[in-house]
Q: What sequence folds into this?
C-alpha cells in the first residue's frame, strides 16, 4: 500500500477511475450482501427502467485525511438517510442507512491509496447511487435494482482563493410544489442542463431558482442551497418543501448557532429582500461554501456589499469553522466525523 502518484493539488473535478467499487443487487424482494469489485462497467438490458424512465437516485460525500492522519468521512449517516427518502419517493427499495455507511467505509478502505493527503486540498469524492435495472416498458417501478458506490479523487474546489461568483435569477423552474425537488435524483439534474448551459453562455456562473408557484421566493441553485448573512450578522436560509436538504447547509446552521453564537432564520426568503443582505453563499459538499458577489435579476444588478474580491467576513468564519471541524482542527459535534 502506498498513495498513488497523483498531483493532488492540481486535480480538477472530473472522473478518474479508482481501483474498486461496491455493488449490491436487489432481486426477489431483497438486497444481496454486496461485493467490492474491480469492474467499472455496467451491462444493462436495452429496456432497463433507468434508461427508459430515469428511475435513479444518488448521493455525494467525501473522504479525506485529517490533520492527525485519520481517513474520515463527514456525516455519512445523513447521506444514507437522504438516500432512503429519495428511494422512497421514486418507489425504489430502500438501501438501509446502516448498510449504506458500511458500504461507504468498505469502498473507501479499498481505495485508500486514492485518499488525498492532508493539506493537499484534494478529497476522495464518493458517489453512491441506485437504479432500476430490469426491463420495464409499461410505466411502473422496476423489480430489480443495483446500488453502487464509486469514488474519484477531486482537486481543491478553490484554487488560489475563493472568488465570488455571479448568479442570475433563472426564468426556468427547478422544482414544482409537491414535486421531486427535495430528493437527490438524476431527473432534477437532467432538466437543469438547459438552464445551466444557457446561463454560462450568457456569462453567469449559476442559476438561482425561484419557487415555481409564485416566482417571488428564492429556493436554491441547481446543486447548492443558499445562505445569506444580514447586515446585523444573522444567518438567513430559504425554507421550502422543494429544496434539497443539503447536509452542508444543515451543518452550517448548527455551526452558526452553536459555535459562533449567531441567530439563524430558516424561513421563506423573498426576491424583494435581496438588497437587504450583506453576504450570500452557495453551500454543498463540493465547495462547502461558494461566495456570491453579484445576483442579476433581469438586468437589475444586486451587488452584495462583500464584493467580488473575496468571501464575506461572516461567510469566511462559517467556512473556516466548518472546514476546521471536518479536518480535525476544531472539535466536532458527536458523530459528525466517521473514521474509515
Ligand atoms: C446535493 C445537492 C445539494 C447539496 O447538498 P450537500 O448534502 O450539502 O452536498 C444542494 N442542492 C441540490 C439540488 C443537490 O442536489
A:
Amino acid at each position: 500500500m502506498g498513495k498513488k502518484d497523483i498531483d493532488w493539488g492540481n486535480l480538477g473535478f472530473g472522473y478518474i477511475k479508482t481501483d474498486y467499487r461496491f455493488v449490491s443487487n436487489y432481486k426477489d424482494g431483497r438486497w444481496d450482501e454486496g461485493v467490492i469489485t474491480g469492474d467499472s462497467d455496467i451491462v444493462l438490458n436495452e429496456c432497463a427502467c433507468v434508461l427508459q424512465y430515469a428511475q435513479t437516485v444518488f448521493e455525494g460525500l467525501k473522504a479525506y485525511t485529517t490533520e492527525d492522519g485519520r481517513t474520515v468521512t463527514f456525516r455519512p449517516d445523513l447521506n444514507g438517510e437522504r438516500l432512503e427518502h429519495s428511494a422512497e419517493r421514486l418507489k425504489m427499495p430502500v438501501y438501509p442507512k446502516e448498510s449504506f455507511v458500511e458500504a461507504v467505509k468498505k469502498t473507501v478502505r479499498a481505495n485508500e491509496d486514492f485518499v488525498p493527503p492532508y493539506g493537499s486540498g484534494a478529497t476522495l469524492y464518493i458517489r453512491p447511487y441506485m437504479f432500476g435495472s430490469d426491463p420495464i416498458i409499461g410505466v411502473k417501478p422496476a423489480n430489480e435494482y443495483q446500488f453502487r458506490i464509486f469514488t474519484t479523487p477531486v482537486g481543491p474546489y478553490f484554487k488560489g482563493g475563493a472568488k465570488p461568483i455571479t448568479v442570475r435569477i433563472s426564468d426556468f423552474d427547478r422544482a414544482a410544489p409537491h414535486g421531486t425537488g427535495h430528493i437527490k435524483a438524476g431527473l432534477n439534474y437532467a432538466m437543469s442542463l438547459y438552464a445551466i448551459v444557457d446561463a454560462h453562455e450568457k456569462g453567469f456562473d449559476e442559476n438561482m431558482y425561484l419557487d415555481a408557484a409564485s416566482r417571488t421566493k428564492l429556493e436554491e441553485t441547481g446543486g447548492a442551497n443558499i445562505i445569506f448573512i444580514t447586515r446585523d450578522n444573522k444567518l438567513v436560509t430559504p425554507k421550502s418543501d422543494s429544496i434539497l436538504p443539503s447536509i452542508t447547509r444543515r451543518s452550517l446552521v448548527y455551526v452558526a448557532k452553536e459555535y459562533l453564537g449567531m441567530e439563524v432564520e430558516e424561513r421563506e426568503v423573498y426576491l424583494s429582500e435581496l438588497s437587504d443582505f450583506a453576504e450570500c453563499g452557495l453551500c454543498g459538499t463540493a465547495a462547502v461554501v461558494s461566495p456570491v458577489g453579484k445576483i442579476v435579476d433581469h438586468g437589475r444588478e444586486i451587488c452584495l456589499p462583500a464584493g467580488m474580491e473575496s468571501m464575506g467576513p461572516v461567510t469566511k468564519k462559517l467556512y473556516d469553522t466548518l472546514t476546521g471541524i471536518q479536518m480535525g482542527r476544531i472539535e466536532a459535534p458527536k458523530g459528525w466525523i466517521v473514521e474509515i
Summary: The mean pLDDT is 96. The longest strand covers residues 123-132.
